[in-house]
Design a protein that fits this description.
Length: 402
């Protein structure tokens, strides 16, 4: 039977006799009794069942399930074994958590819990009287009954309602009422990360990992997490059409503002920069539109800040008046560059320079300048340093002598 036969000729039609059609096809003029002559045999199943399900299997057609409760309506669905997984408790819970975890109304799920209870039960056993071996015995000498108490484990099923969407959307609350513990708890429940939200994930720079840190919700319903066009790569730790470009621009702006807020707390930002400093440098390399703003978040050690990283802005505030250029030297540590011939020259002039690790130099070369001051590598060939007032006076005096 095909789907068309199921709908039009057989199950979907009352008083359709398959036997009658078969006999007519034989062109037999013999008037014989035909089972199912009136075509209501199948529907007699409703005498004993409220709902009937018929599964169709045909070599030349897909498998279908016909189902009806005899109310004048029937449904036909494609029989797909892969869909059975959506009846599993684990699958249902995962779907609700993924798509409807932040719905305002509670979603209840009926769970069958099996509990084993130990109960004492009495069993009766009959034994013949050892002395009675004759067939006829008096009623008083009837088989004795022995009562034995045993403990049995009985399974009891109890149905309880479990709330699946207990996590509340933190973005709907007043930020002033949200504590750091609330942020940490929400972050871990959303990302399944065991680390705090200011620590870099172990696979931060894994090129083959799926970027799903940015999740799109509409009216608290999850829509998608494959949002590669919504955020640039260097901000993937926050994790095209015209709308996407606008969203991307706003997300970058929001992320930059959040980093600026973190930077206001020196100790907290030091932890943040230790984990995500490379992302900021990557942003300077990739995001030309925002690299000047991102440069404010860079931190380096310098000759005047050996034990604590300093910003480019703070460097400028310490520059002598005659110094017009910002200097940096590439090296693994101050001990590694202490033999540099440029070190003593800068020190005598009172000029400060940054210690830039080799892996960080690509961001500096991309930046080129900051706040109108050029960034120049100290070891650059033909470098000319600014003259101090003392050096200028000495040079002019020397020229005057000649």
């Amino acid at each position: 039977m095909t789907k068309a036969d199921m709908v039009n000729n057989n199950l979907g039609t009352i008083a359709k006799s398959g036997t009658k059609g078969f006999m007519e096809a034989l062109n037999s003029g013999t008037d014989i009794s035909m089972i199912g002559k009136f075509g209501v045999g199948f529907y007699s199943t409703y005498l004993v069942a409220e709902r009937v399900q018929f599964i169709l299997i045909h070599n030349d057609d897909e498998h279908y399930i016909w189902e009806s409760a005899a109310g004048g309506i029937f449904t036909i669905t494609l029989d797909n074994e892969d869909q059975l997984e959506y009846l599993e408790e684990k699958k249902i819970k995962n779907i609700v958590k993924k798509h409807s975890d932040f719905i305002s109304y509670p979603i209840q799920f009926a769970v069958n819990e099996v509990e084993k209870i130990e109960e004492e039960v009495e069993e009766e056993r009959k034994t013949d009287d050892e002395k009675s071996k004759v067939k006829e015995v008096d009623e008083e000498e009837e088989d004795k009954k022995i009562i034995i108490k045993k403990t049995k484990k009985i399974k009891e099923k109890e149905t309880t309602n479990e709330e699946l969407n207990k996590t509340k959307p933190i973005w709907t609350r007043n930020p002033n009422d949200i504590s750091q513990e609330d942020y940490a708890s929400f972050y871990k429940s959303l990302t399944n990360d065991w680390e705090d939200h200011l620590l870099a994930p172990f696979d931060l720079f894994e090129s083959k990992k799926k970027s799903n840190n940015i999740k799109l919700y509409v009216r608290r319903v999850f829509i998608m997490d494959d949002c590669e066009n919504l955020i640039p790569d260097y901000l993937d730790f926050v994790k095209q059409n015209k709308i996407f470009k606008v969203i991307c621009k706003n997300l970058v702006k929001k992320a930059v503002n959040l980093i600026a807020e973190i930077a206001e707390d020196k100790d907290n930002y030091a932890k943040f920069y230790e984990s995500f400093g490379k992302n900021i440098q990557l942003g300077i390399h990739e995001d030309a539109q925002n690299h000047s703003k991102l440069a404010e978040f860079l931190r380096f050690y310098s000759t005047k800040s050996i034990y604590e990283q300093t910003s480019l802005k703070n460097y400028i505030t310490r520059m002598p008046e005659v110094q017009k250029t910002m200097y940096y030297l590439t090296g693994e540590s101050f001990a590694a560059v202490k033999g540099s011939p440029f070190l003593e020259t800068l020190k005598n002039k009172g000029f400060e320079f940054f210690l830039v690790y080799p892996i960080d130099e690509y961001a500096i070369t991309q930046l080129k300048e900051f706040d109108g001051k050029k960034l120049v590598r100290v070891s650059k060939e033909g470098l000319e340093l600014e003259e101090t007032d003392e050096e200028k006076a000495a040079r002019e005096a020397e020229v005057a002598e000649f």
